[in-house]
Every structure is written in structure tokens, then in C-alpha cells.
Specification:
Blueprint (H helix, E strand, L loop, with lengths): L15 H13 L9 H13 L3 H7 L2
């Protein structure tokens, strides 16, 4: 018998600061990123990276 997983939904508007902090935290802890969060992490990182100049991105990720 296969039980159905409930359909969870979360709507939240992150501030720019929250996105930046979360992206940096996840990047610093990539080795411990739980399986299944790769797509979320990639979307978050793309959002940050695409909003920065090349110099800002270099500083952010160093």
C-alpha cells in the first residue's frame, strides 16, 4: 500500500537581505546540503548572481 504524501505549499516573499544571507549560508554549507534541495539552492544562487555586477559577485562569493 502506497501512502500519499501531503501536498505542502509555502508562499513567502524573501527580502534581498534574506536571499543574500541564505545563499551565502547554503554556499558555505554545500557539503551538508540535504538531498532534494539542489534545485532550490540553484534557483537561489542564480537569483543572487543575476542581480550582481561581476565585481559584486566576486566579492559576494569570496
Amino acid at each position: 500500500m502506497i501512502s500519499e504524501v501531503p501536498a505542502f505549499k509555502l508562499s513567502y516573499n524573501f527580502t534581498a537581505e534574506e536571499i543574500s544571507l541564505l545563499a551565502r549560508f547554503l554556499r558555505d554549507n554545500m557539503d551538508n546540503l540535504p538531498e532534494g534541495l539542489e534545485k532550490f539552492y540553484k534557483s537561489l544562487e542564480d537569483s543572487v548572481y543575476n542581480s550582481l555586477s561581476l565585481e559584486e559577485a566576486r566579492l559576494f562569493y569570496s
